[in-house]
Amino acid sequence: MPSAEGLTTQEVAERVARGEVNDVPAVPSRTVGQIVRANVFTRFNALLGSLFVVTLIVGPIQDALFGFVLVANSGVGIYQELRAKRTLDSLAVLTSPQARLVRDGDVREAPLTEVVLDDVLELRPGDQIVVDGEVLEAAALEVDESLLTGEAEPVIKSPGDEVLSGSFVAAGSGRFRATRVGAQAYAAQLAEQGRRFSLTRSELRTGIDQILRIVTWLLIPTAALLVVSQLRSNASLRGAILGSVAGTVAMVPEGLVLLTSVAFAFGVVRLAKRRVLVQELPAVEVLARVDVLCIDKTGTLTEGRLVIDEVELLGEDGVHRDALAALAAAEPHPNATLLAIRESFPGPPDGWLATTTVPFSSARKWSGAEFGTRGRWVLGAPDVLLGSRPDDDAHLTKARTHAEAGRRVVLLGRTESPIEADRPPERLAPVAFVILTDRVRETASTTLAYFARQGVEVKVISGDHPATVAAVARRVGLPGAGEPFDAKALPEGGEELAEALETHAIFGRVTPQQKRAMVEALRSRGHVVAMTGDGVNDVLALKDADIGVAMGSGSSATRAVAQLVLLDSTFDALPSVVGEGRRVLGNIERTSNLYVTKTVYAMLIALGVGVVGLEFPFLPRQLTLIGALTIGIPSFFLALAPNDERARPGFLSRVLRFTIPAGSLAAIATFLGYVLAKQEPGVTLAEAQTTATMVLVYIGFLVLTIIAAPLTTWRLALVWAMPALFGLVMVIPAVREFFALYPPPLIVWLAAFGIAALVWSFARLFLPPERPVGPGAPPSPL
Fold this sequence. Notes:
The chain is α/β, with parallel strands linked by helices. The protein is built from 28 helices and 21 strands.
């Protein structure tokens, strides 16, 4: 067994040969290959890619313009995920701790991977404990295990005690022997349970996938019917194939997938400016749907460091401030309490030179010093310094009252007796209670108030004492704080646990396993749950929550499994994430109506020409023009506009309620206009196709007007800019020729527009009377 002087070089080599090294498992994340495959091999790309290849073979290049969407959609997704991966990997390198090894009696710093079993490691204030071990030496050593247990109170360690990887040295110094390294360490075992990579569950993406599945199944028979009809009605094979491709491509809402990715990506960029790293695009949406947010006390509501709340005088003494400053300055290894005192009372003051000191220790629970003519002063736990003297019962009662309110209390006293390390001073005169609290974040109250207004319940789940958690929650104004719940009395699971979570907002002494069970119980009640965390103890709960939010200063395992990383580790960044998610959600639902309307009318037109046996009324490039002016360009601006509508379930049903009647009306008007032109003597196929294009553009503008409501100044300008662009296309010969547009006789397109206007006049009978997205939307302008 090695001594505190560490292993020898030969002993280290022997352990390396046996494989007893700290081979830390890599954090779970997708590889570059996995990211590329996930964004390239999709149902959408398969549908559009095959049609793109066919068009390149048989048609001119302008009929293959829709292929741009393939590259753009995959590129946006790949770029964003690779960007998040690079940022996270860089963050992991920057925050990776070093080990301070003791070998051959010398101390040196080394990477974590050089630690071997039985290595002796030296600890100093602020050091992270990188492997599990047994304490060999301790000088007022206090360890912060909050990243493992959630308990913010530092744990005093003595020789023989166990220390766990993932914890930090809060105060003091010492040395410990590595007893478990690599995958056997406690932090690595917890992280291993969260190593499965799973994509964020997104209702928006799920709804769009459902639309694509429906389109896929309907597309197969419709396309088959269209191919047969085009082969019969066209004089050339090339014309039949182009007509079939045009009809089939129009049925695929290709721009919807791209627009969703672009909207998410813009949201990610906007959040990055607020120092929020989004690892998966749908995470922006999911947090907007969250109705329960689970947070910790330490690091979320509080900053994780003690500050002096007040100094309560217990007697007449005008020098207590100087005494506190002198005691804090005299301590060679200050703990969290003395650091807080040192911050409030910098010193030492003039004339306060310590001649004799007794440093703080876990056994004594007090420290003291003699300052010559200034007297002898001590600082420590009230129950230890006051003992059981009847005269001090009132002081002890007062100290207990402060402790029950979640505050830490230390007693400042003065004594005439010599200060000796082996026993508390006698004849102590209490001077003051120093009352400390965890510093509350300045923005915590504002952030909690925001979530209350948005209908999001906040659950404070902490490893601290329930009374301490409740006191902090009340200070920041947590709605419905009520009585705290001690997790030791929590049911193991099922309905009883779910009921406890529904009726309480504050939970203390919660274990990592209980956090995970609490997330599952909340989700079983239909809640969309977000979990914030920074420690290895949060990994399991973050993994099982609908969305995990990690602090940038937390463990690498936590950052790896979370969908969002708050790089500045500030809780107040979450409202901007929620707002961004709601903007994306509302706008994507708004623009989805445009794309699915196109799918409906394209499918119905294909069925119509297939049954009647006519040539398809559009070339692929004409449908590209129609889609760009009535859907693509305006939807891009609408998708990025401000929007604060609350997220609601039922995305797919609301979209279908609008798009089926709107698409049907568009198909009827277009088909009738096309048939009318075909029946007119002397009208060519190209002129009939131009007639159909003009009618469908007109109907598309009317649909756009409904979707864009309420028509603010910029939206009205956007809507009218699209007909202006179409007018330019029609009057510029080269552009008109590029899109194969040949205006029919005046009487034909006047009659066609008359039919379209008559059909659309029935719109109010079928379409929803209000804008199809968002509560409280104004009535349609039509």
